[in-house]
Design brief:
alpha+beta; about 350 residues; 4-stranded antiparallel beta sheet; 11 helices; 15 strands; elongated; Prim-pol fold; Arc Repressor Mutant, subunit A; 6-stranded antiparallel beta sheet
Length: about 350
């Protein structure tokens, strides 16, 4: 079963996956066409064939529901494919994606969704969320089974335990509750925007996080909106979340570095540590950190205030534990929870 004839891919292939006990749902591009797609069961999957017979792609949930984990190798480099299989373990089921990249499928063994668990490799471990399954047709081409057949999905091996133990730091810890969901998910999208190919892939990542971690879940249209904003920031080169980069415009470099080198250095330090925070303390502790005298530090801080680079939110001074509090002007945009 390496391909499918005709255009009604979902109608044709849903029964093949169902025969393996795997419920599927219709997809277009990388966007599921139904809500609650991760909870679709076999009977609901069969009903969806009647509503979306001509859907060009087949979605398949990952994790406990289907007992599947996918190693997503985000490059067409076959050398990295072989190296990844050598590291994670052999598997009989390999897929080439519509983008020409690779996937290696395994039996689920408690893995969660780990995007770029090893920052120097374009590899994701997908133990949650969903995957577009072969022989789907995507925006850039067809998903093709390179090795094996659907029957191999009955007897997949698990990933090597010594590798998956290193992924535990990427697991969700607790849940994001109402009042912080929007802001937290937005920052999550900004962080992962660096590691995906397009906005659709980022939406997949954000939807999974919303379903796994937000209580209650944000409405899907809100997830779509914040992902669009995050992707726009990424495309414009303004995304500094999770990156080892400090933003500085040419104009402010020319002005501050020449007129007040101390103010420029302080601004860079503040962006280094606080660019995505709503507010932060800015008093004697920072002067000590920089090794500056208080007059020197205060002069630089005042200069940044006068230039409009920082805003004083609270002057402090009501005791030892009441430092001045500031905010950066022009930091990463913030959103409000509904």
């Amino acid at each position: 079963m390496n391909g499918a004839a005709g255009e009604a891919l979902y109608a044709e292939w849903q029964p093949h996956y169902a025969a393996l006990g795997l419920p599927t749902f219709p997809v277009s591009g990388k966007r599921p066409l139904v809500r609650g797609y991760l909870n679709v069961g076999l009977s609901a999957s069969a009903e969806l064939v009647k509503k979306f017979p001509n859907a060009p792609a087949i979605g398949l949930a990952l994790g406990k529901r289907t007992n599947l984990t996918v190693l997503d190798i985000d490059t067409p480099d076959e050398t990295l494919l072989r190296a990844s299989i050598s590291q994670y373990g052999d598997t009989p089921f390999l897929v080439r994606t519509a983008s020409g990249n690779f996937q290696a499928w395994y039996r689920h063994n408690g893995e969660t969704r780990s995007i770029r668990p090893f920052s120097d490799l374009p590899v994701d471990v997908l133990g949650a969320g969903f995957v577009v399954a072969p022989p789907s047709v995507g925006l850039k081409g067809r998903y093709v089974i390179l090795h094996g057949s659907l029957e191999d999905l009955r007897r997949l091996p698990v990933m090597r335990s010594q590798v998956t133990k290193g992924l535990e730091g990427n697991r969700h810890v607790g849940s994001v509750r109402q009042g912080r969901r929007n802001k937290t998910l937005f920052r999550y999208a900004l962080f992962h925007a660096r590691h995906v190919d397009d906005e659709d892939a980022l939406l997949d990542v954000a939807r999974t996080e919303n379903e796994n971690a937000c209580l209650p879940q944000l409405p899907d249209d809100e997830v779509v909106r914040l992902v669009h904003s995050a992707w726009k920031i990424q495309q414009e080169g303004r995304n500094f979340v999770g990156g080892k980069v400090v933003p500085a415009g040419f104009g402010e470099i020319d002005r501050l570095a020449s007129n007040s080198p101390d103010a420029f250095a302080l601004l860079m330090m503040l962006r280094r540590y606080h660019n995505c925070r709503e507010q932060f303390a800015l008093g004697k502790a920072m002067a000590s950190k920089l090794g500056w005298s208080l007059p020197r530090f205060r002069a630089a801080r005042t200069y940044l205030e006068e230039e409009g680079k920082i805003i004083c939110l609270h002057p402090g001074g009501k005791g030892k534990h009441d430092p001045p509090r500031y905010a950066l002007r022009g930091a990463i945009p913030r959103t409000n929870d509904n």
